[in-house]
Amino acid sequence: MPYRKKSTFKALTKNGHSFEYAVNIHKSMYNSSKHGSTEYSPNFLHYGRSLSTLLDTFDPEVKPLLLNQAYEIEKILSTMRHVYNEVQENLTLKQYKQNFRHAQHHKYRIFNPKDIVYVKSRNAFSPTYSGPYQVVKNVSKVTVLIQNEQDQFSKPVLIHVDRLWKSIPRPAYLETN
User: Fold this and answer.
1) Radius of gyration of the chain from Cα atoms?
2) Number of independent structural domains in the chain
């Protein structure tokens, strides 16, 4: 989609239109299109109605209709209240669906005490993983307490499981005496 807009911008500016004109055309097109999560266009949510023409958004000579009657104003306000409640329901439903899809594919990483792990460093200039460390205990589903394996007297560190890489133990037949 961005490529298409870019090519349309180029086409409009090549035909002698100003860049500001092209931006206003695209702004009007975007604001009048229906959004996937709210099921309404931004114009409808902002103005309480769909804009009747493309000129409403960028031609300074076109003036919007003045609403002098209280009935018309109350009608627009009641419509907006109804639309905002519906948008809130739509967004809640979309968020529920998104969380459900995430939960279907998400797996908690489980570390047992005495597991050997490596820690991913945050610094881009240092090695990717440091360690080895030993898991002391699980504090919660997503945090564990680890301690340096070579230094048993070092202070245990609380760390998130996303930064840990579990070391695979070496098979017994490969161990040398």
Assistant:
1) 30
2) 2
User: What residue type is 55 in one-letter code?
Assistant: L
CA dist 80 and 93 (Å) reads 20
pLDDT tens, residue by residue, 10-42: 676 677 777 787 777 777 778 778 877 778 888
Per-residue pLDDT band at 56 (split at 50, 70, 90): low
Say whether both 76 and 132 belong to one domain.
no
* Cβ atoms within 10 Å, residue 116: 17
> 3-state class of 1 per DSSP?
coil
Range of the structural domain that residue 49 is part of? 2-105
Q: Is residue 88 part of a domain?
A: yes
Would you tell me how many other CB atoms lie within 10 Å of the CB of residue 163? 15
Alpha helices in 65-164 (DSSP H): 70-105
Measured CA to CA, the distance from residue 94 to residue 39 in angstroms comes to: 11
CA distance 145 to 136: 5
With beta carbons less than 8 A apart as the criterion, state whether 63 and 35 touch. no
